[in-house]
Design a protein that fits this description.
The complex is a heterotrimer of chains A (442), B (299) and C (284). By secondary structure, chain A is α/β, with parallel strands linked by helices. Chain A has 19 helices and eleven strands. Chain C has 284 residues and is mainly α. Chain C has one domain: MetI-like (MetI-like fold), CATH 1.10.3720.10. In chain C, helix 1 packs across helix 13, helix 3 packs across helix 13 and helix 12 runs antiparallel to helix 13. The chains are: A alpha/beta (442), B mainly alpha (299), C mainly alpha (284). Chains in contact: A-B, A-C, B-C. Chains B and C meet through helix 1, helix 4, helix 5, helix 6 and helix 7 of B and helix 1, helix 2, helix 4, helix 5 and helix 6 of C.
């Protein structure tokens, strides 16, 4: 009995004190970093935060880490990796408010780059770029949403087309369909697919951006790019309940009414929708160019999936550019609190070498680095690069281009219309009310 | 008093608990009180703003109003799905039959699992396309293509049903404990009075279960305002289309943590605390009052 | 006709009983169906999970579970949950025991205030302190460490622990410790050698209650830990679902892996766990 009592006490203490020893050990890289920072003579540390959790982009990062450590003796490269949703909402901000403020970090162009520059997270890179004539390393048209007050804060690493309509060529061929010339033709195409018992469009709007971006693109086509920009920038006199926006949502409602979308479009994730498209369960999917990566992966597994894509079809009578493309880029910034900006810059310079970037361009990504386009082997991707290069206007997606209040209101309106819970008019009136409450227009 | 020596022992024994609770709960609660009167919203600096947050909350924030209404609907539905189901099960299980204990164990199982896990499981079950629930309806000959978690008619009820599945076992155990405390003689006597089982239930069993039921309702009501996990997983990003499944705790997390409106979030937290405190207060009062009336039933 | 305790049942009553039992069994099966579906779906090829939701797997296989365990960092998640739970439960029982003992054993100034403090803690929703707690954790430099969870969990579980243990110590005769104290034993020794061993049953139900709520806690784990290697099971599950959101077989296997040990422990110790979990409610 005394033995039992004694062991109970020991167990209690051990359980409590146990994590004292192990709490920080698991906290890699944060824990290891503070240890390394304590002994500065042991070498330099470069912390890079990003959201490439898997696949080719992650391999690229790992290879870069190895090579950089090999080339620069004594330098320790540490990656902090998070899922992108987590990274965007909480993760990156947490890092900046903890003692592990990153030397290099991943970011989306547009609003977030501006925010990082404004609040002092990122460092201006123009000086480095001019000094080393490094701007020539990129294609000239890629510096979109990378600057703040005339200074570059982000090196673009990947170009994206946020919305394209991918289609299954086999299903299209079966009904001898061709990409539509304009919106009415697109609607007719949906009807024909539906009539033939083929689900026309699969979408996964659980996270709001998939159909949200598309509806945004439609709005910019109908109301014009200036109006689009002004309304999302929350300028006074530019409202979501104006006619152009309503017409855009009427188009989405029209698709929903003709049962062009899958029944779970509102609650499925993009991944789930993608899986349905790749399994041939629907003819089209409105998605970003990153779908090329999945398709390339499919091909590498020996599965043939014949596909093509087209831009959002022109809308007759629209005031915006009917050839506009919705696009964004992602890239890397140097943290303003970086322990060694020069070394971080060196890291970026080596990272952005064409030879290195080519390896994953071949897998289906669009790189802004000059000299990488020759490496593109996927025909659809080549066409996309061409589309982006020749686009008369590039429109930023709402959620990366602008402050949250506006796009959250708009995305919710789109989702309500998609769900059939509200008419476009009601949904947009509510969106405007949301803006008025949370971020009044100025 | 002045000459008395103070025994340090109780203070030393209390110190660790009071320090930990004080630092990680009590001090932050005070922080909530203070921040609720500021307009702090990262990355802007903090300023006092008086009652501005509260007027915004009560007058302008129509999504908060919706969330609050949803919270009350959820409270009402979860009482039906949790307590009524539990009461019915308890009465069914009151008879003696083989395997009675096993049923009780079975119904309690969901209580031991993380709500996130249950949420994911039911996200699959309630899926529009190929979900188990729609498949079950289809096999009964009912047309099933409803997307339960985003349809404004059903979404809250669907989540409440899941919540009922989780908690009815818990309330079942509480109610069984209450039934076990009813003296057998009373029931026997009632049996002589009337043959109607329903009359016996309404006039004898239910009044005697009053205190247990008060505890259940209290737990269910405060639980409804503390819920987060299930709604976060089942409700989708930003509370479903048109915030149909937004409740105060999820709206608070979005305002405070996604949008970094710390001051406003604290005002909402304060409002939530007042609601939970008021419900707790009302029921404690009722429970106390009832206890005086029926002193023979002691807990 | 008077009801007799165990008469020979009439055939009709017997049939009614049987029908009732079958109904109850059906109800129980429907209630348990989600678990069965989860475990069985994990053994089906992904494309059949939603296209043929009722079809049983062709054969029982273990590979998906092994794959899920290796693919997702479930090992790490379990380890993190284990460390966090063990530490916070041990702290809760130990410090809650200390405090409950002090509040039961002595009369002292501030006693009622302390009791009231913990009483408030019993009804306070986590949202009441969530936002400043996040800022505090950040200021203490605890973000993305296990302490960011251990300390708040202890603080959250302490009120109920104090109440249950205090009630238990109050039920013990005061004379127990007095003779030992007269023999010169220190208060700490009296507590550890005499009172705590007697309080084992109450301590155990406190431990069960705390362990389950800590193990399953999601909100703080989700808000305070972003380092993949430190995630606990519930927030790890969210990350796992995010990464493999269409690998349905893997997902179902993952859900099964997470629930299996909990259900196993529950089946082994169900009496204990049911009592532990409801103990708090009936004392409240």
């Amino acid at each position: 009995m005394p033995l039992l009592r004694k062991s109970f006490r020991v167990v209690l203490l051990a359980l409590f004190l146990g994590p004292l020893a192990s709490c920080r050990r698991g906290a890699d890289p944060a824990g290891a970093l503070s240890a390394a920072a304590g002994a500065s003579s042991a070498g330099k540390v470069i912390v890079i935060a990003h959201a490439q959790t898997e696949g080719r982009s992650r391999e690229l990062m790992d290879a870069m880490e190895r090579d950089f450590e090999a080339r620069h003796a004594g330098v320790d490269v540490r990656q902090i990796v998070m899922a992108d949703d987590d990274y965007e909402k909480f993760g990156l901000l947490n890092l900046f408010s903890s003692d592990v403020s990153p030397d290099l970090f991943f970011q989306w162009s547009g609003y977030l780059v501006e925010r990082d520059a404004r609040v002092g997270f990122s460092m201006e890179l123009s000086t480095f770029l001019e000094r080393d004539r490094f701007r020539e390393n990129f294609y000239p048209e890629v510096w979109i949403g990378t600057d703040w007050e005339g200074k570059t804060h982000l090196l673009p690493h990947r170009l994206n087309i946020s919305v394209a309509i991918f289609y299954n060529r086999d299903l299209f061929d079966r009904l001898s369909l061709r990409p539509p010339a304009d919106w009415p033709a697109f609607e007719a195409l949906c009807d024909r697919l539906r009539a033939a018992g083929i689900a026309p469009i699969v979408a996964g709007n659980k996270d709001l951006w998939m159909v949200g971006n598309w509806a945004g693109h439609l709005a910019s086509r109908i109301a014009g790019e200036e109006e689009y920009h002004a309304a999302f920038s929350l300028r006074r006199e530019h409202r979501f309940d104006a006619p152009g926006w309503r017409e855009a949502l009427e188009l989405i409602a029209g698709l929903a009414r003709r049962r062009a979308f899958n029944p779970g479009a509102v609650s499925m994730t993009e991944d789930e929708a993608k899986a349905d498209f790749l399994a041939g369960r629907a003819a089209m999917i409105p998605d970003g160019d990153w779908l090329n990566l999945d398709l390339a992966k499919l091909a590498s597994e020996g599965r043939t999936f014949r596909y093509g894509f087209f831009n959002t079809p022109p809308i007759p009578g629209g005031r915006g550019s009917q050839g506009s493309v919705m696009g964004v880029c992602t890239g890397f910034s140097i943290g303003r609190k970086s322990r060694d900006p020069e070394l971080s810059w060196q890291f970026l310079k080596e990272f952005f070498q064409p030879e290195r970037q080519k390896t994953w361009v071949a897998e289906g990504a669009m790189s802004p680095v000059a000299g990488t386009r020759q490496a593109v082997e996927i025909p659809a991707l080549r066409d996309m690069i061409q589309l982006l290069k020749e686009a008369p206007k590039v429109v930023s997606p709402p959620d990366t281009g602008y402050a949250p209040a506006g796009w959250m209101a708009f995305f919710d309106a789109v989702q309500q219309v998609l769900a059939g819970n509200r008419s476009p008019e009601e949904a947009l009136r509510e969106a405007e009310r949301y803006v008025a409450v949370f971020e009044p227009r100025r | 008093m002045s000459g008395k020596k103070i025994n340090p022992a109780p203070y030393l024994f209390l110190a660790p608990a009071v320090l930990i609770f004080g630092l990680f709960v009590a001090v932050p609660v005070l922080g909530t009180f203070l921040l609720a009167f500021t307009d702090w919203s990262w990355p802007q600096p903090m300023r006092w703003c008086g009652l501005a947050n509260f007027t915004a909350l009560l007058r302008d924030d129509f999504i908060f109003h919706r969330a609050l209404a949803n919270n009350f609907i959820y409270l009402f539905l979860s009482m039906i799905f949790e307590i009524s189901t539990a009461l019915a099960l308890a009465l069914l299980l009151a008879r003696r039959f083989p395997g009675r204990g096993a049923f009780r164990i079975l119904f309690f199982t969901p209580m031991v699992l993380p709500l996130v896990l249950v949420g994911f499981l039911f996200r699959f079950i309630l899926r529009a396309d190929g979900g188990l629930f729609n498949a079950a309806l289809a096999s009964l000959g009912l047309p099933g293509e409803v997307d339960w978690l985003v349809d404004r008619r059903f979404a809250l009820a669907a989540i409440s049903m899941v919540s009922g599945w989780i908690y009815c076992g818990f309330f079942l155990v509480l109610i069984q404990a209450g039934l076990g405390r009813i003296p057998r003689e009373l029931l026997e006597a009632a049996r002589l009075e009337t043959d109607s089982a329903w009359k016996r239930f309404v006039h004898v069993t239910l009044p005697l279960l009053r205190e247990v039921l008060v505890v259940c309702v209290l737990l269910c009501a405060t639980g409804a305002f503390k819920a987060f996990d299930l709604f976060y997983v089942l409700g989708g990003r930003s509370g479903g289309p048109g915030h149909i499944t937004e409740i105060v705790p999820t709206w608070l997390v979005q305002q405070a943590f996604e949008l970094k409106h710390y001051g406003y979030g604290c005002a909402m937290a304060l409002a939530l605390t007042i609601i939970v405190g008021a419900i707790a207060g009302v029921y404690v009062k009722i429970a106390m009052g009832r206890k005086k009336e029926a002193p023979h039933l002691e807990f | 006709m008077t009801p007799s305790p165990s008469p020979a049942l009439s055939p009709w009553a017997l049939i009614a009983k049987a029908v009732g039992w079958i109904l109850m069994a059906g109800l129980a099966l429907a209630f348990f169906a989600p678990f069965l579906w989860m475990a069985l779906s994990a053994m089906k090829p992904a494309e059949k999970i939603f296209s043929e939701p009722w079809a049983p797997p062709e054969r029982l296989v273990l590979e998906p579970f092994i794959a899920a365990f290796q693919e997702a960092r479930f090992g790490a998640y379990f380890w993190n949950s284990l460390v966090v739970t063990a530490a916070s439960v041990a702290g809760t029982v130990l410090f809650g025991g200390f405090a409950g003992y002090a509040l039961a054993r002595w009369r002292f100034r501030g006693q009622n205030a302390t009791l009231a403090l913990f009483l408030i803690g019993l009804i306070l929703p986590v949202q009441a302190y969530l936002i400043p707690l996040r800022l505090l954790i950040e200021a203490l430099g605890l973000l993305d460490t296990r302490w960011a969870l251990i300390f708040p969990y202890m603080a959250m579980e302490l009120p109920i622990a104090v109440y249950i243990l205090r009630a238990f110590f109050l039920s013990l005769p005061r004379e127990l410790g007095e003779s030992a104290a007269l023999d010169g034993a220190s208060p700490l020794a009296v507590f550890f050698h005499i009172y705590l061993p007697l309080a084992l049953p109450a301590a155990a139900s406190v431990a069960v209650l705390a362990a389950l709520s800590v193990w399953n806690e999601f909100l703080l784990a989700f808000l305070f830990i972003h380092d993949e290697s430190l995630r606990t099971v519930p927030s790890g599950l969210l990350a796992f679902q995010g990464i493999h959101s269409t690998d349905y077989q893997l997902l179902f296997a993952g859900l099964t892996i997470v629930s299996a040990p909990l259900i196993a422990v529950y089946v082994l110790a169900q009496r204990f766990m049911i009592e532990g979990l409801t103990a708090g409610a009936l004392k409240g």
